[in-house]
Structures
1.
Amino acid sequence: MRQPDREFKVKAVIDGDEYGNRQIVDFKIDNSIASDGFEIGTAIPSTLTINIRTTKEIKSNSKVIPYIALSTSNLTWEQIEIPWNQVDVPWNGSGTNWLPLGEFFVDKRERINNVWTFTCLDKLVFADVAYISSLTYPATMKAVWDEIMRRLGWTYDSSVVINSSYMIQVGPAGYTMRQVLAYIAGANAASVIVGKDGVIRFKRFSTSAEPVFEMTPSDYIRAKQTNPIKQYTRMVVTYNTEDDLSYESGSGDENHTLSLENPFMTQTMVNNLLASLKGFAYLPLSMDARGFPQLEHGDIIGFEQDESAAWIDIEIPWNQVNIPWNGIVKYKSVILKQAFSFKGGLKMSIDSPSISEQQSEFVVEGSLTQQVNKLDKTAVKEGKKYYGATITRTEGLIIEREDHLSKAVFNSDELTFYANNEKALWFDLPNRKFKFSGTLEGVDGKFTGTIEGGSFIGGSIQIGSAFSVNNAGHMKAVGAEFSGTISAAIITGGQISGTSIYGVTVTGSTISTRVGSSKGIVMNSGWSDLEVYSGVSSAHLTFMIEDLAEDAGLWFNRDGLITSGREIRISAPGGVFVNGVRIG
């Protein structure tokens, strides 16, 4: 690839159909792992823009895999530094093996004459869906990562190393799968990319990382340093953006501080992050170079630059000049943004931006910017969670637990409480009724108002201290008053007081109209007698039906003593006795 007369061959496979050099007009691949400066914990989809001359219809979301190879038709043995028996190049000079440049999916298209322009994104775009976990929390970051990979049907390679002790305490409600993947990568000092083979990878960063490729001045066209060397000695991780709560580790000013947002990180994780990245440095630059398709965004590269000058032009004492005698100075940088463009040849541009020291220390805001930032902090935003509450256009106000066990939805058409995604309590608007699918229970055992139902089963019901029904089906009234009608097959036990009692059968041991020692009649089922009390002293008459083995009859006794001699006895077949003397 370093030969000045190199010649590339390209092809693209789209849903199994192959398009070669004659159909491909040009293409451009944009990769990014950061925006304005060095970052970790990102998962940014790459973009392919390809122009193909074709009349064949290409469907939406078709998979597009661009390939590149080097022609070996002009390659001579003098140009090869590998022993001939180790060269994996066909002898016929057809070219090297094909190198895939990624897997992309058609997002939109445009046609000009017979040339179609397809804009495609890599598979990270499919992770922009809500993540609803089925795991039990707390769960390890590794378990969460694996669950997302299984759902998306993706694979990842050995570069993905997740600390086994890192936990996520509660279900990450309100985040997309791509956000969760990025947060997990960030906690492990990495970012997420899709490799050229379509496999998910970590781009991990550390202070000790060495360049994967060394570039000489002949490998690039222009290298422009855009800022002084950037170095980090302090980490600040915001885990709650609403209240601006964060963890930090290390020391240094804003220019030497790496800031990121990650709701899953702890102080221990931030300390570990500092241990990996303390002293990490790179040279911010913008470079146009010959294309080296084996490079990926996130790679550390080294490059040489000729900074020689005549002694007469240098104003620094000679013993303080840190320039090699040949004038070639070596630098190290990281590919934060990368673009490959093919149009007959392969060109590469690399951008490694950084926030300048002045931007870090002095953030000057205009009046409009100040108002926008203030509004951004105070306004309630659509789709953003506020302590479990979210406002959406489709459902209104939603309040949901992070583990999705419960949810409440409030809008003009729906007032509903959910449990495990099933309705628990809701307002039936057409019928003007509240409905409840669970069990009604009072925490203190007290209810007010009217409870109406077809039947009450189990337990006991007590109204005040006067009336109760126990779980055996027995009704009890203590000093209670009832109006209206009480209907029952049998009323047993206790006391019934009232003006009138109507019924067919009254069963009991004693029936009395007497209160205390007053006059009255007492019927006693134990002795089968009827006693009539005069209300004076203990005088009373007893009408006894004696049912003995040898005799049966009717006794009239004044004081209830059969042996008193003051009785009239009519017995069968014994006859009639007065004071014990038979008279008939």
2.
Amino acid sequence: MPQTPPASAPAIQLLDDRLVSQIAAGEVVERPASVVKELVENAVDAGATAIEVRLEEGGIKRIVVSDNGSGIPKESLVLALTRHATSKIHSLNDLESVMSFGFRGEALASIASVSDMRVVSRTADEDRAWAIASKNGRTASADTITPAAGDKGTRIEVSDLFYLTPARRKFLKSPATEQAHVIAQIERVALANPHIDFRVFAGGKPVLNLPAALTEGRVFAVMPREFKGACRQVAADMPGLHLEGWTGLPTAAKSRTDSQYFFVNGRFLRDRVLQHAVKTAYADVLHGASQPLYCLMLTIDPTRVDVNVHPQKSEVRFRDAQLVHQFVAKALAAALAAGAVVEEGAGCVVREPVSIAPSGTAFPARPFAGHASAGSGSYAAGNFARPKPEPARDIEGWLALYGGAHTASAPAPRAPAAALETPTQAALDVAPAAAAERGHCGRLGRPIAQIGGIYVLAENERGLVVVDMHAAHERVTYEKLKAKKDLGMDRTVLLVPSTFRVSDEEMAAFEEHRDTLADFGLEVSAAGENALMVRALPAILAHECADTAQLVRSVLDDLAKFGTSSLTEEMRNACLATMACHGSVRAHRRLTMGEMEALLRQMEETDRIDQCNHGRPTWLELTLEDLDKLFLRGR
């Protein structure tokens, strides 16, 4: 049979400008929320102090964004709707230190290519507003500019989104769903810009009103209601980096990630390095599938981060990802480790907000185009020291009242020491003299009773403290074990070394991070081309690690992605947590007053004492006001 001759190769040709814009729109415009994001961010860049958004059918039919910013001059209106035209950058140096949002110069042109658009704008120098319109995806021209009514600022109307690309329009969800995405997008911008007034109307009815406020007020207005009563304040500095915001307590964790906000130089991101840093910080207090709530703002020298790696600018690339990861993880871990929380209603409240090396100033507002960048300022060197416990207070009166029969009795017999010197119930035993010499009650108060063999009751200056004695002692024991093991990473040499094949990427990661593996207690060496040999493991993992090869592969994967790994530490801590659980005071054991006193004082000196190793609260407080409410006093 005669063979069919091959078809000739298609000719290469330039794409039509309209098609080019529609293709570019696919990178920028996904749904109505994408349009709102671009327009609102442009308004922020223009220095607006009030932004209003109006929606019809969730933004599918109509979107109107109005602002009182600097406006667009008449002679720049055509360029504003032209691709690759922007006022934000002029050179590569500007791009490397950009702090503005809409610097690509594609948003308006992309939106106009898939919808009908009308722009009305007026600058402070003009005596009237000017309008320009783009219909059917056609490029606007100077002869379409007409006089219009309008105050200083810009008003952009987008109609019939995706009607020019029906294949994409059918992927949109219901108006209610699209509206919810728009609201979420505006809330993200509003969190980073608390000095701006935001209002949203849907179908002519107000659905969101966020007046200008301090950062704290804006955060609590946007975050879930329970967050205000269950969070810790964060503030940390090191040269070139500043982190501040609020991070939620484990008791306020949710199953969803919709209340997780991380901003870098005012830009909302879902960055894997930052997400992993948060996960690392919560590893010791939050378990299972629970997701923490947080609103965190990182300011970094803009030359140390590349924001031009994603069309929607939702991802960045850090010049030193490992440094950023460690900075964020340590700052959050320190915030979660310190401070006092108490129960108020359905949630916990921070009575004394925690500050880690505070900068002394509020989070700086993201500068607009033409202002000094955040990287031009000075940064104070900081550390992550935990605040010292409160000074001792005199409690001779209650010792005389409560100490008699209890503290005079013989202490409970000591349990035999556990393996690896695990602290046991005996850690709570104190001699009567030791309790009397301490002579203070601290922030958790003085012990007064034990209920059901499970809870310790104490009285402090504010009211009643209730302690879950096993959960609290479990945390105390766990932190002591970690401190002991942190003094050194003991190794156990394997009787038979484990040899396994690795990929080219894993081998490259090994060559780059072999010293880091040694710091983790892993003795690993090359065993030929694309093969590794494990000769030793951290001692505490030697009998717990069933798959040595998978452990090393996972650590190498973390090192390649984040420059660090917490896997061996997490496995070690899991072992220590089990030991702490079995080595802590058990429920239904009768405690003497001296033992209860010792437990309260140890709690005050222990990191992360507010939650046990499983994320449950260890204590709560009922103030006198809370007790008055329970008994209807004052009514």
3.
Amino acid sequence: MRRPIAVLFVLIAFGSAHASQTRRFVLDTPRALAGATGHGVMIFPDGSLRPLAPLTPVATFDEPLGLAVVVAPDGTAFVGTGHPARIYRVREGRKELVGEAKADQITALLLDPDENLWAATAAPALLLRSAKAKGAIEEVARLQGGNLWDLAWFKGGLVVAAGNPGRLMRFTAKGLELAAAIPDRHARCLAVTGDVLLIGTSGKGLVMRWTGTTPPGVVYDSSFTEVAALAPAPDGATYAAGIAGDPTLGKPPAKDDGEAIVTVSVSESTSTTPETPKGPATSEIVRILPQGAATTVHRFTKQIASTLAWGDVGLVIGTGLDGELWQLVEGSAAMLDTVNAAQVVRIAAGGAWVLTQSPTRLLHRSGKVHGTFASPPLDAGQPAQWGDAELVGELPPRGGCTLRFRSGASAPPDDTWSAWSAPVGCPGGQVAAPPARYLQWQVELEPAAAASIPRVGRTEVTYRQINLPPEIKEFTVHEPGEVFLKGPPPSDRIVEVQHPDLSGIFTTLDDEAKETQDRLGKKYYRVGYQSLSWKADDPNGDPLRFTVEVGRAGSDAWWKVRDDLEVTSIALDTQALADGLYRFRLTATDAPSNPETPARVQALSSVVVVDNTPPATAAVEEEP
């Protein structure tokens, strides 16, 4: 006689995507492209890519420090150096000395609305001027004690950032006069946004706001100790670069005694990377809204962001200790370019001009448009086979656009990755990279016609995960008589089976339940029942089906208890078995999602004693 059947279960939750499905990487937003490495390729707010003219050296300087650059509307560039402090004019590829100051370094240059050239120095603090940027450099003011760090044209006059102590100076007919005191060691950098002057400080790392009439107020207190650069954006926001110090240890109080020389020179040694609540960081980029609210939009873990400028579509960031240009578009950062120097010191004209150090050189974007762009590593989640790649957009004619690929098992790419594949023409084709978890593509854009600048609007790559076998992490045999139910039985603590079916000789509990649970349920007892439970998952995220079998210990014969189960526990009536030692076998398969290449795994339980024979008693008569 067949016994009634019921099943108890707990479902395991899986994602809806399965290994047999073809998936896609779609890169068409700045966020998707974050972490990419480009060499002369700009990311636009809509996620499209455009190549730029290369950064070409136009002047090299013998001085070890290059600290300031400004570019006139006619394309004439002026460069300020240190050790010694000199000012050069660079025009049409020719470099000429404008003048030399009796100071250690030129720290800032400014062209006012009348095209007069102003220069600030450190050690000592001098203010210099060249009328119409054509005459000789002359000293117009000197500050007794301290240094001058930056210049700004604000509300019709020249304002100078100074330290130590931190001060804002205004240049008048009487020379440099105190305009406002700054509660820090140095007023380090200046930026005009609307009718407000923003001041970045060194020592406490503050960003302050000054209207020109009221005392400056603090709008941001950086976790770093120096705000090295400020850059206004067209929407009224201002970006700030914070450098130096360990954000997690708290900032040391600024000392008022002694003079400090602030330079942007590169040290040959580096200190330990400071730890922050979100991991190590060497510098940060902060966005400050016109209302004063500030948020950190990006933190570098190696680069030191020393200079900022607003480019055509986003923020351009110059860094050291390796000379790099980064772009921050819609809050996402990617490398824009690299330079053969230790540090990008200053950026002018939205990134069209770049001043570097070690060596001290002036670069300008000019020549034939040409750029390469490598995507961030694309994570398939598991080893995958690659399909096709396709670029969508305004692509150049044949030969002006090529794609290459490489793959590997780790991120970021290292020496274990495959070599770059041979280039294929755009818009793309089969991805020629070995199966792996990570993929990277690189596009090279070099249009033949200067008037035809290509634009990549979207990149798609298809892939399919390699089907990996499931994993059975636990297979538990519970104590005899224990059963687990989602709800209480009709009578307290004792389970009675009411509805037999024709599924087989083994009666189970709650076989028809289908909703997911995160635990077995409440423990009850039923004489003759044996509960099994297991934990299993699939590396590809495929839903699993389970088969439970039973067999005598030491025998190769197995009897099926249930198959095609979606549950992860079952309780069966062992009274269908003869007394003896038994084992259960669990099989997990991902066949529903992978009908062509199913994978399965099996696990054996510990030995179970089945003893359904009640004890017997007999009277024994003792002999007298």
4.
Amino acid sequence: MNVKTRAWRGGLAAIWLLISSAGYADTTTNAQITVHSDRPGAIIHPEIYGQFAEQLGRGIYGGIWVGENSPIPNIKGYRKDVVEALKAIKVPVIRWPGGCFADQYDWRDGIGARDKRPVRMNASWGGEDSNQFGTHEFMDFAALIGAKTYLSINVGTGSPREMSQWIEYITADGHSTLASERRANGRDKPWKLDYVGIGNEMWGCGGSMRAQFYADVYRLYATFVHASASAPIVRIASGANADDVGWTDTVMSIAGSQVDAISLHNYTIPTGSWSHKGSATQFGEDEWMATLQGALHMDDLITKHSAVMDKYDPKKRVGLAVDEWGNWMDQDPGADQPALYQQNSLRDALSAAITLDIFQAHADRVHMANIAQMVNVLQAMILTDKSRMVLTPTYYVFDMYKVFQGATYLPVDVQVPTYRYGNASVPSIHATAGRDAAGVVHVALVNLDPHHAETVHMTLPGVNESNVHGRVLTAPAINAINTFDLPEQVKPAAFGGATLKHGMVTAVLPPKSVVVLDLH
């Protein structure tokens, strides 16, 4: 955290002052946005607000699971504060146990009495896994916060038999040996298993496979995903790394008839270098711009992969699951273990917002997305330190955007100024909109410019609402963060900068801000 950030102790008071000001020293006034409520699009799948919890480090242990005997307040071993925070943002689905970890995971290590479970080396991320958090713990955790379940299946070191037995153990409602074993381990009724991912990053840590070989392996595994007609399981193929549309083409051409969804992974690296990704907190406007450009690249990726999928699936039966995405910076130098722990700033909040905007714009094809990751890892919702917990700026974006879950997407036309830094540039405003089941129109506006406020004039054909209110997320510095000592440095506040008159909304967006408006 820099001196400016440390010096800001006003918290919400500073935000209120910023928002309630009569005007800004430098405000652009030619931003024009049209929300086409008269041309409704696809339903926005709630699952695009999904989460990813990989079995590594503090992402699980101390982050989600502390055990029943912990002095940290818990619900049957799950951190009470974390459970309540995740329920509040309506997490729709959780992906587990990996990631790279999945293709070394033996599901039998994580069942039975906890004091008898084996300790295994974590070959992907270092350290060891006690297996105290296993199948029962994951399935019950998902139920506790109201989320669907997404298992990443071990293909790299596993077998179709192991997968089918794991699925039977979870879902069988009868007297088979596996169903009886589950009951003996404390779970009488079967769980609902919603998604299975057949391998993870099979082109890399999942087995270094070529696309054609993996497509045949997928067909083999998919054949043995047995589910009842009343409780179907969505089968997700391991998809491409970023721009590799050839992988998508091959898998769709060979295995498309057995694919319910195909994944896509993409991480934004501010510096563009995996060996030195950049600091999560100590960065300048060059890396601010690079991060926003990286987030905006998601639109190009989805467009390209969707075009390939359209060749084999013009009716868009097969979903695109962006089941790993987010910002990846260098690990926090103060982290106590090599477990991908990084801080989370206002920069992460804005990049998350524009990525979610993009997913919603592609609601006809994007059926799921899972940010990496849920707690204490990469672009996390939540950070914990023993008994303390802090909500990150990214968490608050998910909180503000939860109104879009299940809404009907409304197309948006944007004509806005350009924000420039050096030779790089992006549109200064990003936007998305949707109408929920109750008829309320929600519009999200993101001002990417860290220096200038923007006055937005927004027309909404077909909207007759007469009231507008909303919330804003911003902070004085681009690298403002929430810490355990100062947990409310970046937090939403009521937004008073919008008016609605004769079907037009005028909104003054603070620099570097996310605003969500509700029209009713």
